Amino acid sequence: MYHLSENAKEKEIWLDKVGGHKEHVHCLISIGKEQTISKIAQLIKGESSFWINKNKLIPYKFSWQDDFWAVSVSESHIERVRKYIDKQEEHHGKKSFDEEVETFMEKYGWNYLSEEKDQLWLKP
Question: Which DSSP string do the residues of 41-67 spell out, in sequence order?
Fold first, then answer.
């Protein structure tokens, strides 16, 4: 995760907190007025994939999935989000990522765009 933070600094992305678990990563980012979510995701994912493969951190070619998911966070919830990111290992010891997604979708009334559960979500 240190590399993601350093890469973000080099690209003038304010990465407040980063953490995750086996199959995903969470980033708390403050977006500048000239930045877009998709460009930030492209920069972070692209360079980190290159770095992982260049340094042969895994025995096969690494690539991120094409999508990403982003939500805004109110100032009053930032500390709560930081703690959530910090506790990913502990959190996913109790609940898988897929279970967490399903719980979140049920809680907020979101549905899959398609029957294939790898598509983006829409709120009805």
Answer: HHHHHHHHHHHHHHTT-SSS-----S-
Q: Rounded distance, CA 89 to CA 44, Å?
A: 21
Q: How far apart are CA 38 and CA 29, in angstroms?
A: 12
By the 8 A CB rule, do 44 and 8 touch?
A: yes
Amino acid making up residue 30:
S
**Residues in contact with 89: Cβ distance below 8 Å, sequence separation at least 6, in sequence order:** 21
Q: Which residues contact 58 (CB under 8 A, 6 or more apart)?
A: 52
Q: Quote the tokens at residue 1.
A: 């995760």
What confidence tens digit (pLDDT) does each residue in 66-104 have?
Answer: 778 888 999 999 999 999 889 887 877 777 777 877 887
